[in-house]
Description:
Blueprint: E1 8-10, E2 13-15, E3 19-21, H1 30-39, E4 43-45, E5 49-50, H2 51-55, H3 59-64, E6 74-79, H4 83-96, E7 100-105, H5 110-113, H6 125-138, E8 143-148, H7 158-168, E9 172-176, H8 190-199, E10 204-207, H9 213-223, E11 227-230, H10 240-250, H11 259-277, H12 279-293, H13 300-309, H14 313-327
Parallel strand pairs: 3-4, 3-11, 4-6, 5-6, 6-7, 7-8, 8-9, 9-10, 10-11
Antiparallel strand pairs: 1-2
Helix pairs in contact: 1-11, 4-6, 6-7, 7-8, 9-10, 11-12, 11-14, 12-13
Keywords: Flavoprotein, FMN, NADP, Nucleotide-binding, Oxidoreductase, RNA-binding, tRNA processing, tRNA-binding
Function: Catalyzes the synthesis of 5,6-dihydrouridine (D), a modified base found in the D-loop of most tRNAs, via the reduction of the C5-C6 double bond in target uridines.
Protein name: tRNA-dihydrouridine synthase
Amino acid sequence: MTATIKPFSIGTVELEAPVILAPMAGVCDAPYRVIAHRYGAALVCAEMVSSQGIRYRNQHTEELLHIEDGEHPLSMQIFGSDPEVMAQAAAVVEEAGADIVDINMGCPVKKVVKNGDGSALMKDLPLAEKVIRAVVRAVSIPVTVKMRTGWDDASFTAPELAKRAEAAGAAAVTVHGRTREQFYSGKADWQKIKAVVQAVSIPVIGNGDVVDGPSAAALMKETGCGAVMVGRGAQGNPWIFPQIRHYLATGEVLPPPTAMERYEQMLSHFEALLAYKGEYIGVREMRSHASWYTHGLYGSAALRERINRAASADEFRSIVRDMMDKAR
């Protein structure tokens, strides 16, 4: 890419572009993080990890802490509401090799918030600040906080939480422009992200409804945020990262990937997933990715039905290659 765009710094970590892959459970495993980096995500964020799981050495949790070559710079996200336990977890994350530790204060899922974790911390700002301060003291790498605008429409607490995060030593905050009660429905409120930008001097990363280059540029222009974080727009779509980078640099919209490019990348992703998780898990986890990769393609519904019935790696490959032959 010959065009240039401004780098973006989070504490001591300098990113070559203001374009970040969001942490998404079931999506941002090591294979996809490597893919996203290869396509142009300047920072990738791992799936959130339970601080209690780290404390008790849960096997699945320890697997989530594994970092592959090609992932750096990498942010690893932890969740919990006990300052001491979160501090211990952050130290483990740093030891695992993460470049940034991110504190989840935005997850809306019931099983998380019922324990006072995730977006529930937006209802207890003094505790949230204690958690941030404890994590900052426990590590030497930058600490960031990911939040929503508030618990519901009646509680716009993001600016105050961002101020407390800054006071506690956080290097940056990410704001998803929805409330907890919205989950992922409705439209993200970018004006509330703008209010957070105006409330603090540390960098603010905007998140919500970024689906291409123009929407990324619009979010940055409307809010004044320094970078964008891409969530659902990156599912089965690593091309979004070069599209955003190119648009921010030139104002030009790159063409979408062809059907053949999508099939080829899907197969490459599948092989990486097999190598990382084995055939049984790889075949089953790839079903979700395949539905995203093929969304909107001719015959995609029938293809997804066939893929969902595939029980082996060879069967999956055969189905996709059959579609590739038809696309030629």
